[in-house]
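FORM 12-B: Structure-to-Sequence Request
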């Protein structure tokens, strides 16, 4: 208890907590977009339940990984070396050929995300002529949706917790940051899903984001570290352009009346 009180009294703890919460929220955006798009494929009566279960499992996985930090950090040790020498850039290999368990998980998760986003884009293009109410219902079963959410939860949780471990060594701070960030995800899940469901062009934009995130996970697995700031700046710019398009469509619709 004295250690916990001294931790709470330390201003550095609160700075670390605020920084970690921001980082966890940013990393959680990927997870939240995927959950929102996938849950919108379910019948309306099951959508909220699927989102809550998916985000609840994300919290459970993150807390479980935090309780096994020593094992999690061990995932960064190489377990597979292809023995290849990639092209050199500034005297260093352009990509890694020795892979850790984390690398393999990121590559598998990235491939899954690209496959899923491509499949959803195909569905969206096929269903372009249908009424909005029928676009999302009945394409996947509830169990299938939860299984796919859990698969991506594992990938995003490992990435999230390894980031937290790299920023602080205090377990209570990491736990608090994860709980706060996932709580914010839970609050934002339903409004985000409804917004995506009401705006078909936003669905396509979000699927494009998932393709980009999948490619980033694969690149990270190969040791090509793309600064996330660049990725989120591109996503923010695209979202800003889409917001302008939506405003223009609303004004044209209003003028038509």
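FORM 12-B RESPONSE
SEQUENCE OUT:
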């Amino acid at each position: 208890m004295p250690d916990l009180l001294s931790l709470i009294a330390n201003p550095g703890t609160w700075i670390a907590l605020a920084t970690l919460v921001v980082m966890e929220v940013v990393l959680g955006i990927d997870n939240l977009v995927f959950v929102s798009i996938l849950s919108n494929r379910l019948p309306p009566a099951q959508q909220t339940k699927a989102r809550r279960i998916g985000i609840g499992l994300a919290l459970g996985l993150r807390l479980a990984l935090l309780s096994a930090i020593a094992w999690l950090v061990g995932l960064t040790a190489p377990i597979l070396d292809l023995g290849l020498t990639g092209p050199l850039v500034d005297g260093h290999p352009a990509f890694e050929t020795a892979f850790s368990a984390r690398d393999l998980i990121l590559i598998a998760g990235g491939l899954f995300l690209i496959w899923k986003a491509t499949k959803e884009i195909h569905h969206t293009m096929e269903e372009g002529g249908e009424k909005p109410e029928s676009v999302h219902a009945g394409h996947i079963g509830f169990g299938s949706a939860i299984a796919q959410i859990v698969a991506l939860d594992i990938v995003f949780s490992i990435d999230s917790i390894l980031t937290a471990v790299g920023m602080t060594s205090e377990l209570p701070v990491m736990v608090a940051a994860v709980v706060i960030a996932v709580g914010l995800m839970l609050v934002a899940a339903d409004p985000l899903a409804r917004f995506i469901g009401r705006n078909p062009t936003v669905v396509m934009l979000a699927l494009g984001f998932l393709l980009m995130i999948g490619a980033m996970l694969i690149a990270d697995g190969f040791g090509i570290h793309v600064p996330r700031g660049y990725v989120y700046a591109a996503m923010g710019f695209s979202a800003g352009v889409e917001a302008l398009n939506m405003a223009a469509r609303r004004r044209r619709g209003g003028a038509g009346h």
